[in-house]
């Protein structure tokens, strides 16, 4: 019974974790007009800037907001697919090394682009693996 009372007052661990991610979602959304206004070459230039910051020792977590905003805009321009807020959260969860459960059609592959980009900034390489042959062929193009 005490556990139920505590859950009602403080929420579940999952709810608390999601609440902690919300400020980054807000910050990414706030960056959207600025990133959207960039030319294609200026948007591409953000990758070099972010890489340089990572190379100079800036923690990768400090690059998350700008990186996710850049990937979101690139997704809109290249794939005509904009990451929804819930997909941003999924990307943050994956970046933390956790598992994000998503149903069919909720954009798991699109979500994976966010932490893949962020973690590739350090130059160590990133692998995205799927067992879905159709998605593997589609996304390889």
Task: Describe the protein's architecture and organization.
The chain has 141 residues and is mainly α. The protein has a single domain (2-140), classed as P-loop containing nucleotide triphosphate hydrolases (Rossmann fold). Helix content is 69%, strand content 0%. The chain has helices at residues 2-10, 13-36, 40-55, 64-79, 85-95, 108-120, 133-140. It starts with a helix and ends with a helix. The relative contact order is 0.11.
Task: Give a quick summary of the entry.
The protein has helices at residues 2-10, 13-36, 40-55, 64-79, 85-95, 108-120, 133-140. By secondary structure, the protein is mainly alpha-helical.
What's the helix and strand layout?
Blueprint: H1 2-10, H2 13-36, H3 40-55, H4 64-79, H5 85-95, H6 108-120, H7 133-140
Helix pairs in contact: 2-4, 2-5, 3-4, 4-6, 5-6
Give descriptors for this structure.
about 140 residues, mainly alpha, Rossmann fold, 7 helices
CATH fold-type name: Rossmann fold
Radius of gyration: 17 Å
Q: Which CATH first-tier class would you pick?
A: Alpha Beta
What is the terminal-to-terminal distance? Answer: 54 Å
The total strand number stands at 0
Number of helices: 7
H-E order: HHHHHHH
Low-confidence stretches: none
So, CATH architecture?
Answer: 3-Layer(aba) Sandwich
State the shape: globular
- Report the helical percentage: 55-70%
Structural class: mainly alpha
The averaged pLDDT comes out at: 89
Quickly count the domains. Answer: 1
Q: Supply the CATH superfamily name.
A: P-loop containing nucleotide triphosphate hydrolases
Give the quaternary arrangement of the chains. single chain
Beta-strand content estimate: under 5%
Report the major sheet: none
